[in-house]
Design a protein that fits this description.
Elements (H helix, E strand, L loop, with lengths): L5 E7 H10 L2 E4 L9 H12 L7 E5 L8 E2 L13 E5 L1 H12 L4 E4 L5 E9 H4 L6 H4 E5 L3 E3 L5 E4 L3 H7 L1 E3 L7 H9 L5 H21 L1 E7 L5 H11 L8 H10 L5 H10 L14 H22 L14 H5 L3 H24 L14 H11 L6 H16 L8 H15 L7 H5 L6 H4 L6 H12 L11 H6 L4 E5 L3 H6 L4 H4 L5 E5 H7 L4 H11 L4 H9 L5 H5 L3 H20 L7 H5 L1
Parallel strand pairs: 2-5, 3-12
Antiparallel strand pairs: 1-12, 2-4, 3-5, 6-7, 7-8, 7-11, 9-10, 13-14
Length: 597
């Protein structure tokens, strides 16, 4: 956005509030509603009454290619007029000033206890003229009834009629731009004090009212040629109202200008995968969905340019960053949203096949976005054994290479076309598959489920077909029916501590496996050799069957019966490394210190 795209001028406050009243200046729909506390409005009125600066207002000139759904400033009458300008910065100040100075209705605000209230603002004429006083002390907020009472209900201040205002010498702020009628009533309401009242009014008008009449605010006006991305970025840079707006909210406002309700559409799409077999998608956010749609839209633009003769580098890039999403056209959203909805559902089915059943054990929520985009682009081509194997290798390379933990938009944009080309035979291995490495030593440092690789090991274990040690039932079934399955220690923590085994070793994933709560209670803090005998009795089975149940978790039953921690961990490491290698399609890296040993 160049310098020629905006101008800076001073405008009279009265003119700005008149524009608000007529609907000529409105808010873009994405601007959140805002209610200032009464003390903030008092401070603002006091500042203007003294002629002090009150900040800058930023407007967007309407009529260009960028269109937003608009709404009036809160408290302003509903208008069918197309606004000439949109308020980007200064919403709180203009809303508060319009309601307190210009509107015929009481001001919506909240008090020091954050309790919602309505009322009116007045200026104590005599206090305002005290040279050594704080002007804020002269600005008074009274309830909507214009009567302030004490805890007994007795009136402390009664301004419920013009005569009461005159008698208390309290000037209503709603009269600052049309003060003649109030002045006439004030001067004449007590004939014996007319000259005194006239003198007071003259001083008050000169010191206070004229300040409002002559007050000007600097207004930065962005030209109608300002692009949407710049408008949104400028708004967020200057918005001090609190919560940052999301891309979804901004696109909701722009699509609404074409009578498309993006929020309603998102709710309807999300409902297609709510609960049941799609519970893995429970935490997919609206911006996640938009990123996937944008990946497909930019992929289409890129492909069209390449097919039109442009080389890969010169063609529009594939991406889903903030700027890419803000440039998404409504026509593109309409085209790709249904396909992406299907892509997310296919991604959920794929994850289920990988034994990832719910969000607690999803390695990377962010990897769902490119996964859904890949399934959306491939369609039926993703349903072959070969395609599933390639998608699986890419997925687990991202998990065990731990490549989706930081800023991921660049990897999204790279992985989607590369995986699609690989699956369809038009390209080689994606860079994520090539770059991913998993070191053997990583197994010993995986201790909490906060790690994507930790959750990945859990899923691979479930794929191996482990059964519950006590019942012999499949752990995937136990997990699916939510029978309190969790990851528990094989060599109990208490037992390890008694033998001086350090936490870093006994808390690693090598010493953990999925078990039901009832089996874990049977294990308790006992030695493996002891609890295995107990499991044999409790399960009413043979030692051999218990050993087979244990071995289904890729754990050496022999080492457990010998209470040999080191041998059990070494055997488990070898078994888990084989699982990881098979999932990634490459052998894990062996650390130098392990080779030397």
């Amino acid at each position: 956005m160049g310098v020629e795209s905006f101008g800076i001028e001073k405008e009279f406050l009265k003119d700005l509030l008149t524009q608000v009243d007529k609907g000529e200046a409105q808010l873009p729909e994405f601007q959140r509603g805002w209610v200032w506390p009464d003390r903030n409005i008092v401070a603002l009125i006091a500042s203007i009454s003294l002629g002090y600066p009150a900040g800058t207002v930023m407007m967007l000139k309407q009529g260009g290619d960028v269109r937003f759904k608009t709404r009036p400033v809160e408290g302003a009458p509903h208008s069918v007029a197309v606004p000439d300008r949109l308020i980007l910065d200064g919403q709180q100040r203009l809303t508060s000033l319009y309601q307190s100075l210009f509107s015929d209705s009481s001001v919506k605000t909240h008090d020091v206890r954050n309790k919602a209230t309505r009322g009116w603002f007045y200026i104590d004429m005599e206090k305002a003229l005290l040279g050594d006083g704080d002007r804020e002390d002269a600005v008074v907020f009274v309830p909507e009834s214009k009567v302030r009472v004490d805890f007994r209900g007795h009136a402390l201040v009664d301004l419920s009629s013009p005569e009461q205002e005159y008698a208390n010498r309290m000037f209503p702020c709603t009269a600052v731009f049309n003060s003649m009628q109030w002045m006439m009533g004030f001067v004449q309401h007590s004939p014996e004090r007319q000259q005194e009242n006239l003198t007071l009014w003259s001083r008050f008008h000169e010191a206070v009212v004229r300040r409002f009449e002559q007050y000007q605010l600097p207004v930065i006006e962005l030209g109608k040629s300002t692009p949407r991305q710049a408008v949104c970025q400028v708004f967020e840079k200057v918005n001090t109202g609190g919560v940052t707006l999301t891309v979804f909210e901004l696109l909701t406002a722009t699509f609404a200008a074409d009578d498309f309700d993006l929020r309603r559409d998102w709710v309807d799409r999300r409902a297609q995968w709510s609960g049941g077999p799609y519970r893995i998608l429970a935490e997919v956010a609206n911006t996640d969905f938009l990123q996937a749609v944008t990946l497909l839209a930019t992929h289409e633009r890129h492909q069209a340019a390449v097919e039109g003769g442009r080389d890969e580098i010169a063609a529009p890039r594939i991406g889903c960053r903030r700027a890419d999403m803000l440039n998404l056209a409504l026509s593109e959203y309409r085209k790709w949203a249904p396909t992406v909805t299907g892509g997310f559902k296919s991604a959920a089915q794929f994850l289920h096949s990988q034994h990832i059943f719910d969000t607690r054990f999803l390695p990377y929520g962010s990897q769902l976005i490119p996964l859904a985009a890949i399934f959306a682009l491939l369609g039926g081509k993703a349903e072959t054994v070969g395609a599933r194997r390639k998608i699986s290798r890419w997925y687990w390379s991202g998990v065990f290479g731990e490549l989706y933990g930081g800023t991921t938009e660049t990897r999204f944009a790279r992985d989607v076309p590369e995986v699609v080309a690989w699956v369809t035979g038009r390209g080689g291995e994606p860079r994520t598959v090539q770059e991913a490495q998993f070191f053997a030593s990583r197994l010993r440092s995986l201790r909490t489920r906060g790690s994507a690789a930790y959750k990945g090991i859990y899923a691979l274990l479930l794929q191996a077909g482990p059964v519950d040690w006590g019942t012999g039932s499949d752990m995937s079934d136990e997990n699916y029916f939510d029978n309190a399955v969790d990851i528990h220690h094989v060599f109990p923590k208490v037992w390890c501590e008694r033998r001086g085994i350090v936490p870093g070793d006994y808390n690693s994933i090598l010493n953990k496996t999925p078990l039901t709560a009832r089996t874990n209670r049977l294990i308790g803090g006992r030695a493996p050799s002891v609890y295995l005998r107990g499991l044999t009795r409790t399960a009413d089975t043979t030692p051999g069957q218990v050993d087979r149940n244990v071995q289904s978790h890729l754990i050496s039953a022999i080492a457990l019966r010998r209470d040999d921690f080191d041998a059990a961990m070494s055997a488990r490491q070898d078994a888990l490394l084989r699982l990881v290698g098979e999932a990634m399609g490459k052998d894990p890296q062996i650390d130098v210190d392990q080779v030397d040993s």
